[in-house]
Protein backbone atom coordinates (compact mmCIF):
# COMPACT_ATOMS: atom_id res chain seq x y z
CA UNK A 1 0.00 0.00 0.00
CA UNK A 2 1.13 3.56 -0.62
CA UNK A 3 3.08 5.04 2.26
CA UNK A 4 4.30 1.62 3.38
CA UNK A 5 1.48 0.93 5.88
CA UNK A 6 -1.23 -1.69 5.78
CA UNK A 7 -4.66 -0.83 7.12
CA UNK A 8 -7.58 -3.08 7.87
CA UNK A 9 -10.29 -0.95 6.28
CA UNK A 10 -10.95 2.18 4.34
CA UNK A 11 -11.35 4.92 6.89
CA UNK A 12 -11.20 8.63 6.96
CA UNK A 13 -9.58 10.86 9.51
CA UNK A 14 -10.85 14.32 10.21
CA UNK A 15 -7.80 16.12 11.62
CA UNK A 16 -8.30 19.18 13.70
CA UNK A 17 -4.73 20.44 13.49
CA UNK A 18 -3.47 23.95 13.17
CA UNK A 19 -4.23 24.19 9.43
CA UNK A 20 -6.96 26.51 8.21
CA UNK A 21 -10.36 25.23 9.18
CA UNK A 22 -13.96 25.90 8.47
CA UNK A 23 -14.49 26.96 12.05
CA UNK A 24 -16.56 29.90 12.90
CA UNK A 25 -20.16 30.82 13.28
CA UNK A 26 -20.60 31.09 9.56
CA UNK A 27 -20.20 27.36 9.18
CA UNK A 28 -21.26 25.91 12.48
CA UNK A 29 -24.03 28.41 12.99
CA UNK A 30 -26.09 27.52 9.93
CA UNK A 31 -27.63 24.27 11.14
CA UNK A 32 -31.01 22.83 10.51
CA UNK A 33 -33.09 21.51 13.41
CA UNK A 34 -31.78 18.20 14.69
CA UNK A 35 -28.69 18.25 12.47
CA UNK A 36 -25.11 19.19 13.18
CA UNK A 37 -22.34 19.95 10.81
CA UNK A 38 -19.56 20.17 13.39
CA UNK A 39 -17.70 17.49 11.46
CA UNK A 40 -17.33 19.95 8.61
CA UNK A 41 -16.44 22.78 10.96
CA UNK A 42 -13.25 20.98 11.96
CA UNK A 43 -12.12 20.23 8.41
CA UNK A 44 -8.76 21.51 7.23
CA UNK A 45 -8.47 23.21 3.87
CA UNK A 46 -7.16 20.12 2.08
CA UNK A 47 -9.75 17.86 3.62
CA UNK A 48 -12.56 20.10 2.50
CA UNK A 49 -11.21 20.09 -1.05
CA UNK A 50 -11.14 16.29 -0.87
CA UNK A 51 -14.80 16.32 0.11
CA UNK A 52 -15.57 18.52 -2.92
CA UNK A 53 -13.51 16.24 -5.17
CA UNK A 54 -15.20 12.99 -4.15
CA UNK A 55 -18.67 14.57 -4.11
CA UNK A 56 -18.02 15.53 -7.74
CA UNK A 57 -17.07 11.97 -8.62
CA UNK A 58 -20.29 10.63 -7.08
CA UNK A 59 -22.35 13.16 -9.06
CA UNK A 60 -20.51 12.12 -12.23
CA UNK A 61 -21.33 8.43 -11.68
CA UNK A 62 -24.99 9.11 -10.88
CA UNK A 63 -25.52 11.42 -13.86
CA UNK A 64 -23.60 9.09 -16.18
CA UNK A 65 -25.93 6.22 -15.27
CA UNK A 66 -29.08 8.33 -15.63
CA UNK A 67 -28.00 9.90 -18.91
CA UNK A 68 -27.01 6.50 -20.32
CA UNK A 69 -30.27 4.84 -19.32
CA UNK A 70 -32.71 7.57 -20.50
CA UNK A 71 -30.82 8.06 -22.95
CA UNK A 72 -29.81 11.66 -23.13
CA UNK A 73 -27.77 12.39 -26.23
CA UNK A 74 -25.66 15.10 -27.71
CA UNK A 75 -24.47 18.42 -26.44
CA UNK A 76 -27.52 18.68 -24.17
CA UNK A 77 -26.19 15.80 -22.10
CA UNK A 78 -22.76 17.34 -21.74
CA UNK A 79 -24.11 20.80 -20.93
CA UNK A 80 -26.60 19.33 -18.48
CA UNK A 81 -23.82 17.54 -16.64
CA UNK A 82 -21.65 20.66 -16.43
CA UNK A 83 -24.50 22.78 -15.11
CA UNK A 84 -25.71 20.24 -12.57
CA UNK A 85 -22.19 19.40 -11.38
CA UNK A 86 -21.17 23.02 -10.91
CA UNK A 87 -24.58 24.08 -9.61
CA UNK A 88 -25.01 21.37 -7.00
CA UNK A 89 -21.52 21.91 -5.61
CA UNK A 90 -21.97 25.65 -5.56
CA UNK A 91 -25.25 25.35 -3.66
CA UNK A 92 -23.60 22.86 -1.32
CA UNK A 93 -20.65 24.99 -0.24
CA UNK A 94 -22.22 28.42 -0.46
CA UNK A 95 -25.79 27.86 0.75
CA UNK A 96 -25.67 24.69 2.82
CA UNK A 97 -22.21 24.97 4.39
CA UNK A 98 -22.07 28.77 4.00
CA UNK A 99 -18.29 28.80 3.84
CA UNK A 100 -16.19 31.80 2.96
CA UNK A 101 -15.03 30.94 -0.58
CA UNK A 102 -12.10 33.35 -0.30
CA UNK A 103 -10.48 31.06 2.26
CA UNK A 104 -10.11 28.44 -0.47
CA UNK A 105 -8.94 30.65 -3.30
CA UNK A 106 -12.37 31.82 -4.43
CA UNK A 107 -15.46 30.31 -6.03
CA UNK A 108 -13.58 29.45 -9.22
CA UNK A 109 -11.00 27.30 -7.39
CA UNK A 110 -13.76 25.38 -5.63
CA UNK A 111 -15.70 25.00 -8.87
CA UNK A 112 -12.76 23.57 -10.79
CA UNK A 113 -11.54 21.25 -8.01
CA UNK A 114 -11.86 17.77 -9.52
CA UNK A 115 -14.06 18.98 -12.37
CA UNK A 116 -12.07 17.52 -15.27
CA UNK A 117 -11.69 14.15 -13.55
CA UNK A 118 -15.42 14.04 -12.83
CA UNK A 119 -16.14 15.01 -16.43
CA UNK A 120 -13.99 12.16 -17.73
CA UNK A 121 -15.64 9.73 -15.30
CA UNK A 122 -19.08 10.93 -16.36
CA UNK A 123 -18.19 10.37 -20.02
CA UNK A 124 -16.96 6.84 -19.33
CA UNK A 125 -20.08 5.87 -17.37
CA UNK A 126 -22.37 7.54 -19.88
CA UNK A 127 -20.72 5.74 -22.81
CA UNK A 128 -20.74 2.36 -21.02
CA UNK A 129 -24.44 2.50 -20.11
CA UNK A 130 -25.47 3.93 -23.46
CA UNK A 131 -23.56 1.23 -25.32
CA UNK A 132 -24.83 -1.55 -23.03
CA UNK A 133 -28.52 -0.59 -23.02
CA UNK A 134 -29.07 0.91 -26.46
CA UNK A 135 -26.53 -0.89 -28.62
CA UNK A 136 -25.92 -4.24 -27.01
CA UNK B 1 -23.06 -9.76 -24.37
CA UNK B 2 -22.00 -8.37 -27.74
CA UNK B 3 -18.39 -8.11 -28.80
CA UNK B 4 -18.55 -4.33 -28.70
CA UNK B 5 -19.71 -4.15 -25.10
CA UNK B 6 -17.17 -6.80 -24.11
CA UNK B 7 -14.50 -4.58 -25.65
CA UNK B 8 -15.83 -1.59 -23.70
CA UNK B 9 -15.55 -3.43 -20.42
CA UNK B 10 -12.16 -4.83 -21.37
CA UNK B 11 -10.79 -1.35 -22.00
CA UNK B 12 -12.07 -0.12 -18.63
CA UNK B 13 -10.42 -3.15 -17.02
CA UNK B 14 -7.15 -2.45 -18.87
CA UNK B 15 -7.33 1.14 -17.68
CA UNK B 16 -7.79 0.07 -14.06
CA UNK B 17 -4.87 -2.35 -14.36
CA UNK B 18 -2.57 0.23 -15.92
CA UNK B 19 -3.52 2.79 -13.26
CA UNK B 20 -2.66 0.26 -10.55
CA UNK B 21 0.52 -0.67 -12.40
CA UNK B 22 1.56 2.98 -12.53
CA UNK B 23 0.94 3.39 -8.80
CA UNK B 24 2.77 0.13 -8.14
CA UNK B 25 5.80 1.25 -10.12
CA UNK B 26 5.77 4.58 -8.31
CA UNK B 27 5.57 2.81 -4.97
CA UNK B 28 8.47 0.49 -5.77
CA UNK B 29 10.71 3.21 -7.19
CA UNK B 30 9.72 6.15 -5.02
CA UNK B 31 7.38 5.78 -2.06
CA UNK B 32 9.20 3.01 -0.25
CA UNK B 33 12.69 4.55 -0.57
CA UNK B 34 14.29 6.05 2.52
CA UNK B 35 15.22 9.23 0.70
CA UNK B 36 11.60 9.87 -0.23
CA UNK B 37 10.31 9.12 3.28
CA UNK B 38 12.92 11.41 4.79
CA UNK B 39 12.12 14.24 2.38
CA UNK B 40 8.40 13.83 2.92
CA UNK B 41 8.78 13.96 6.71
CA UNK B 42 10.99 17.04 6.34
CA UNK B 43 8.43 18.79 4.13
CA UNK B 44 5.60 18.02 6.55
CA UNK B 45 7.62 19.24 9.53
CA UNK B 46 8.65 22.44 7.77
CA UNK B 47 5.14 23.12 6.52
CA UNK B 48 3.67 22.85 10.00
CA UNK B 49 6.47 24.98 11.48
CA UNK B 50 5.99 27.65 8.81
CA UNK B 51 2.24 27.68 9.24
CA UNK B 52 2.56 28.09 13.01
CA UNK B 53 5.04 30.91 12.54
CA UNK B 54 2.80 32.70 10.02
CA UNK B 55 -0.15 32.46 12.39
CA UNK B 56 1.77 34.09 15.22
CA UNK B 57 3.47 36.79 13.17
CA UNK B 58 1.95 40.25 13.38
CA UNK B 59 2.14 43.22 11.03
CA UNK B 60 4.59 44.93 13.31
CA UNK B 61 6.96 41.92 13.29
CA UNK B 62 10.59 42.85 12.82
CA UNK B 63 12.61 42.44 9.65
CA UNK B 64 14.50 39.61 11.26
CA UNK B 65 11.29 37.62 11.84
CA UNK B 66 10.17 38.16 8.27
CA UNK B 67 13.59 37.20 6.93
CA UNK B 68 13.46 34.04 9.03
CA UNK B 69 10.11 33.13 7.47
CA UNK B 70 11.44 33.81 3.99
CA UNK B 71 14.40 31.52 4.67
CA UNK B 72 12.08 28.77 5.88
CA UNK B 73 9.87 29.19 2.82
CA UNK B 74 12.95 28.90 0.60
CA UNK B 75 14.00 25.75 2.42
CA UNK B 76 10.51 24.27 2.02
CA UNK B 77 10.53 25.12 -1.67
CA UNK B 78 13.89 23.38 -2.13
CA UNK B 79 12.68 20.27 -0.34
CA UNK B 80 9.52 20.19 -2.45
CA UNK B 81 11.68 20.46 -5.53
CA UNK B 82 13.86 17.55 -4.36
CA UNK B 83 10.68 15.57 -3.71
CA UNK B 84 9.56 16.23 -7.28
CA UNK B 85 12.96 15.15 -8.63
CA UNK B 86 12.71 11.85 -6.74
CA UNK B 87 9.31 11.20 -8.32
CA UNK B 88 10.70 11.98 -11.76
CA UNK B 89 12.45 8.63 -12.20
CA UNK B 90 9.19 6.76 -11.72
CA UNK B 91 7.66 8.95 -14.41
CA UNK B 92 10.31 7.85 -16.89
CA UNK B 93 9.78 4.19 -16.03
CA UNK B 94 6.01 4.57 -16.34
CA UNK B 95 6.35 6.42 -19.64
CA UNK B 96 8.56 3.69 -21.06
CA UNK B 97 6.23 0.86 -19.93
CA UNK B 98 3.15 2.55 -21.18
CA UNK B 99 4.57 3.35 -24.58
CA UNK B 100 5.20 -0.35 -25.06
CA UNK B 101 1.75 -1.29 -23.73
CA UNK B 102 -0.03 1.28 -25.90
CA UNK B 103 1.66 -0.05 -29.00
CA UNK B 104 0.43 -3.53 -28.16
CA UNK B 105 -3.15 -2.48 -27.38
CA UNK B 106 -3.36 -0.30 -30.47
CA UNK B 107 -2.54 -3.26 -32.67
CA UNK B 108 -5.05 -5.49 -30.85
CA UNK B 109 -7.92 -3.01 -31.13
CA UNK B 110 -6.98 -1.58 -34.51
CA UNK B 111 -10.08 -0.91 -36.63
CA UNK B 112 -12.49 -2.14 -33.94
CA UNK B 113 -15.47 -0.11 -32.77
CA UNK B 114 -15.32 -0.53 -29.00
CA UNK B 115 -18.32 1.62 -27.99
CA UNK B 116 -21.01 3.94 -29.30
CA UNK B 117 -20.80 7.55 -28.31
CA UNK B 118 -24.07 9.21 -27.21
CA UNK B 119 -22.92 12.42 -28.87
CA UNK B 120 -21.12 13.55 -32.00
CA UNK B 121 -17.63 14.73 -31.06
CA UNK B 122 -16.26 18.02 -32.30
CA UNK B 123 -14.33 17.76 -35.55
CA UNK B 124 -10.88 18.06 -33.98
CA UNK B 125 -11.71 15.36 -31.46
CA UNK B 126 -12.96 13.00 -34.16
CA UNK B 127 -9.34 12.44 -35.13
CA UNK B 128 -9.00 10.68 -31.77
CA UNK B 129 -12.49 9.22 -31.31
CA UNK B 130 -12.68 7.80 -34.86
CA UNK B 131 -9.02 6.85 -35.17
CA UNK B 132 -8.34 3.97 -37.60
CA UNK B 133 -12.06 3.17 -37.89
CA UNK B 134 -13.83 2.46 -41.16
CA UNK B 135 -17.01 4.25 -42.21
CA UNK B 136 -18.35 7.75 -41.60
CA UNK B 137 -20.36 7.19 -38.43
CA UNK B 138 -18.72 9.63 -36.06
CA UNK B 139 -20.45 8.10 -33.04
CA UNK B 140 -18.24 5.03 -33.41
CA UNK B 141 -15.66 5.06 -30.65
CA UNK B 142 -12.10 3.88 -31.07
CA UNK B 143 -9.92 2.26 -28.41
CA UNK B 144 -7.68 5.23 -27.84
CA UNK B 145 -10.49 7.69 -27.07
CA UNK B 146 -12.15 5.47 -24.51
CA UNK B 147 -8.79 4.53 -23.01
CA UNK B 148 -7.82 8.18 -22.57
CA UNK B 149 -11.13 8.98 -20.87
CA UNK B 150 -10.77 5.99 -18.56
CA UNK B 151 -7.20 6.86 -17.71
CA UNK B 152 -8.05 10.48 -16.97
CA UNK B 153 -10.67 9.46 -14.45
CA UNK B 154 -9.43 6.18 -12.99
CA UNK B 155 -5.76 7.10 -12.70
CA UNK B 156 -6.53 10.35 -10.94
CA UNK B 157 -9.02 8.69 -8.58
CA UNK B 158 -6.52 5.92 -7.79
CA UNK B 159 -3.81 8.48 -7.17
CA UNK B 160 -6.08 10.51 -4.96
CA UNK B 161 -7.28 7.62 -2.87
CA UNK B 162 -4.07 5.65 -2.54
CA UNK B 163 -1.07 7.82 -3.20
CA UNK B 164 -2.24 10.99 -1.53
CA UNK B 165 -1.29 9.77 1.89
CA UNK B 166 2.28 9.39 0.68
CA UNK B 167 2.48 12.43 -1.55
CA UNK B 168 1.50 16.02 -0.91
CA UNK B 169 -1.57 16.52 -3.08
CA UNK B 170 -1.59 19.59 -5.24
CA UNK B 171 -4.89 21.36 -4.70
CA UNK B 172 -4.52 25.01 -5.43
CA UNK B 173 -2.00 25.89 -8.08
CA UNK B 174 1.09 23.83 -8.80
CA UNK B 175 2.70 24.02 -5.35
CA UNK B 176 1.87 21.05 -3.09
CA UNK B 177 -0.51 22.02 -0.31
CA UNK B 178 0.41 21.56 3.33
CA UNK B 179 0.49 17.74 3.58
CA UNK B 180 -0.86 17.56 7.11
CA UNK B 181 -1.62 14.23 8.75
CA UNK B 182 -2.74 11.30 6.59
CA UNK B 183 -6.11 11.82 5.00
CA UNK B 184 -7.08 8.38 3.77
CA UNK B 185 -6.18 5.03 5.14
CA UNK B 186 -6.53 2.46 2.38
CA UNK B 187 -7.35 -1.05 3.47
CA UNK B 188 -6.20 -4.31 1.91
UniProtKB/TrEMBL annotation, chain A:
It is a multi-pass membrane protein. The chain crosses the membrane at residues 51-70, 75-94, 114-133. It is found in: Endoplasmic reticulum membrane. One of its GO terms (cellular component) is mitochondrion. Residues 1-10 have a biased composition (Basic residues). The keyword Amino-acid biosynthesis does not apply. InterPro entries: EMC6-like (IPR029008), RCAF1 (IPR010742). Residues 11-22 have a biased composition (Polar residues). GO terms for biological process: mitochondrial respirasome assembly. Pfam families: EMC6. Keywords: Endoplasmic reticulum, Membrane, Transmembrane, Transmembrane helix. The keyword Hydrolase does not apply. Belongs to the EMC6 family. This is RAB5 interacting factor. It comes from Equus caballus (Horse). The gene is RAB5IF.
From TrEMBL, chain B:
The keyword Kinase does not apply. Residues 1-19 form the signal peptide. Keywords: Calcium, Calcium channel, Calcium transport, Coiled coil, Endoplasmic reticulum, Ion channel, Ion transport, Membrane, Signal, Transmembrane, Transmembrane helix, Transport. Residues 33-89 form a coiled coil. One of its GO terms (cellular component) is endoplasmic reticulum membrane. InterPro entries: EMC3/TMCO1 (IPR002809), TMCO1 (IPR008559). PANTHER family: CALCIUM LOAD-ACTIVATED CALCIUM CHANNEL, PNAS-RELATED. Belongs to the TMCO1 family. Homodimer and homotetramer. Homodimer under resting conditions; forms homotetramers following and ER calcium overload. Endoplasmic reticulum (ER) calcium-selective channel preventing intracellular Ca2(+) stores from overfilling and maintaining calcium homeostasis in the ER. In response to endoplasmic reticulum (ER) Ca2(+) overloading, assembles into a homotetramer, forming a functional calcium-selective channel facilitating Ca2(+) release. Mediates ER Ca2(+) homeostasis in osteoblasts and plays a key role in bone formation, via the CaMKII-HDAC4-RUNX2 signaling axis. Component of the multi-pass translocon (MPT) complex that mediates insertion of multi-pass membrane proteins into the lipid bilayer of membranes. This is Calcium load-activated calcium channel.
